[in-house]
Design goal:
alpha/beta; Ubiquitin-like (UB roll); Translation Initiation Factor IF3; 8 strands; 35% helix
Length: 164
């Protein structure tokens, strides 16, 4: 219910009717079989529009559904390496990382340390650098490796500069 009078009235086709009393605006809407909807309650005078409220609400819900449909969650795949990874294993896992990136997924690369390997974390950083060098032309670095997180060293890669 619109309480303040007068209101700036906008017709159903979007044209300005002008500033009119609320009663007159409601009567005009009733004669057309439509509703009087408050569009801008903070403006002075209040802006009201003559429209079919049910149809308007349906259109807004439809737009919201389409927006939710277009939203997509980023899938993150994880590939785990060891600091002393052999060349063949490194290239096998690197091909997995490439495949995930080409599919448009983000990849979390984790270097897992065990017992004595913890004494030389620079070996893990070297593996991560090697991965970055090999994939330099197809990745965008989402999160670089920081300090050790427990026994793991992680970095996140995203699909980036694509070259055909």
């Amino acid at each position: 219910m619109i309480r303040l009078s007068p209101v700036r009235l906008v017709d159903a086709d979007g044209s300005q009717v002008g500033i009119v009393p609320v009663e007159e605006a409601m009567a005009l809407a009733r004669t057309r079989g439509l509703d009087l909807v408050e569009v801008a309650p903070t403006a002075r005078p209040i802006v009201c529009k003559i429209m079919d409220w049910g149809k308007y609400r349906y259109e807004m819900e439809k737009k919201a559904r389409q927006a939710r449909r277009k939203e997509h969650q980023i899938e993150v795949k994880e590939v785990k390496f060891r600091p002393g990874v052999a060349d063949h294993d490194f290239h096998t896992k690197l091909s997995m990382v490439k495949r995930f990136l080409q599919q448009g997924k983000h990849v979390k690369v984790t270097i897992m340390f065990r017992r004595r390997e913890m004494r030389r974390p620079e070996n893990g950083y070297e593996v991560l650098e090697r991965i970055k060098e090999e994939l330099a032309e197809i990745i965008r670095l989402e999160r670089d490796a920081g300090p050790l997180e427990g026994r793991d060293l992680t970095m996140v890669l995203a699909p980036g500069r694509k070259t055909a």
